[in-house]
Specification:
D-Maltodextrin-Binding Protein, domain 2, 3 domains, 3-stranded antiparallel beta sheet, Lysozyme, alpha/beta
């Protein structure tokens, strides 16, 4: 009898192992056989959203690339909160959660995690002119609200062991971005958010103020169902590949590379001028951009970087007007008066288009536009020098991320002495492009706010 029980128990164990392995294989096999990867994500600037040309976002681009690698089509389920996202993994309705989620010990009990792709810290965020806590002790008596089922709650529960006075309210319906807006609207005192979410949202809500960090650096990763070891392995192998070939860094640069040190005064002034100055010049930007096949918002952002939309702007070096044209460039573009806003905008658009057309056909968008902007700023010759140097350093001269690393080297003698056009302040065009991208992003979001909602 004991022998029978022993054999029976052995069979049960083997059966359980087989079932687990089969379930694991079935998930990856199902994805491949159905040619469909079910991705659950959040609708947010750091993850997935609808842009001018359709779906976009850091997590969207990543999952598109992974699905293409597997040879399948991604299907997206969009949820608002972390708890809703994780619930779909628990029920097995989704294969992957790509939603900017933190890898925590608490979540390890229920889910598997992919490879780390970003490092963030949790930050206490309040509003300028409101509560000003500088350390955990200062949170006593402050209304602190955080989203439910997030790493923030997990962290606060840990901290409460050492700071018993800590109190907070969990919000079941609002996500991190919504609570940041609530802080901005002075409806609540403070919230907690990951640093990458704060970095992007402060551009839309410039009065948000980061008070202090409440965590050490933490990692973001995709989350998978507990039994999906095979799919987890496929994810890990793929992430290793895109780290090695630079794809991951390019995506990080696309969505975060242009976020420089936050300038509250500048951003606030820019948003004010979108309302007060832009309407007067918007028709010129649109007409010129359409004629020269440019993005009018990019052209407008470029003009703001040049002159803050001041048609009578003048620099010590002699460039003038709303597009800050040199006298030579104005003559080449057949501009009679650089102080005439319409003429200046058309001249600037024509010159930017000329830069873009002179670039090799191997350069695709958006890299083509970024390089044209850099050429507008530093000169086409220096840009071509940087491309030559990039190839010499085994970097991709057709990729803006790589070129942005190389351009600053034009100020170093060991590099520029062997280049045709010599020395250049190569960091300036990198900063120039960064700021224009930032302005363009804010401009797009501000204009979207003004659009009437569909009923």
């Amino acid at each position: 009898m004991r022998k029978f029980d022993h054999i029976g128990g052995f069979v049960v164990v083997i059966t359980l192992i087989c079932l687990t392995a089969c379930t694991d294989r079935q998930r990856l096999d199902r994805v491949l056989s159905d040619a469909e990867l079910v991705v659950v994500t959040r609708n947010a600037p750091t993850t997935y959203y609808e842009g001018r040309d359709g779906e976009t976002g850091f997590e969207y681009d990543l999952t598109q690339a992974f699905a293409e690698h597997l040879g399948v089509k991604p299907r997206y389920i969009v949820k608002d909160t972390a708890s809703e996202v994780l619930a779909l993994l628990e029920t097995g309705e989704a294969d992957i959660a790509a939603a900017g989620l933190t890898h925590t010990e608490g979540r390890d009990q229920y889910f598997l995690f992919g490879t780390t792709y970003q490092v963030v810290t949790q930050q206490v965020v309040c509003r300028r002119g409101g509560k000003r806590p500088d350390k955990l002790e200062d949170l006593d008596g402050i209304e602190l609200i955080v989203p439910a089922d997030t790493s923030y709650v997990e962290r606060l529960n840990y901290l409460k062991r050492y700071y018993p006075f800590l109190s907070w309210r969990v919000e079941e319906q609002m996500n991190t971005e919504a609570l940041l807006e609530e802080v901005w609207r002075i409806r609540i005192d403070c919230t907690i958010a990951d640093s990458n979410i704060v970095a992007i949202n402060r551009r839309y809500y410039p009065e948000l103020s980061v008070r202090f960090d409440i965590s050490d650096p933490e990692i973001l990763a995709w989350v998978l169902p507990k039994n999906a070891e095979g799919l987890q392995s496929a994810v890990s192998d793929w992430f290793e590949d895109i780290e090695d070939d630079g794809t991951l860094q390019q995506l990080l640069d696309k969505y975060y590379g242009f976020i420089e040190v936050f300038d509250y005064v500048d951003i606030r002034a820019f948003k004010r001028r979108i309302r007060s100055r832009l309407p007067k010049y918007k028709p010129y930007f649109k007409q010129a951009a359409k004629h020269y096949d440019l993005d009018w918002q990019l052209l407008a952002a470029m003009s703001y970087q040049e002159s803050h939309w001041n048609p009578r702007a003048k620099s010590p070096t002699g460039v003038r007007g709303i597009m800050m044209l040199t006298l030579t460039t104005a003559k080449e573009m057949k501009i009679q008066s650089r102080l005439n806003a319409e003429q200046s905008i058309w001249g600037g658009a024509r010159y930017l288009r000329r830069m873009a057309r002179r670039l090799p056909d191997t350069i695709t968008e958006p890299d083509r536009s970024y390089m044209a902007l850099a050429a507008y700023n530093v000169g086409f010759g220096h840009l071509m020098d940087a491309r030559q140097l990039a190839a010499r350093l085994n970097k991709n001269p057709d990729n803006w991320t790589d070129l942005a690393e190389v351009l600053p080297l034009l100020a170093r003698k060991q590099y520029y002495k062997s280049l045709k056009h010599g020395y250049a302040r190569g960091y300036e065009p990198v900063t120039y492009v960064q700021r224009i991208r930032d302005y363009q992003d804010i401009l797009e979001k501000e204009l979207q706010k003004k659009k009437p909602k569909k009923r």
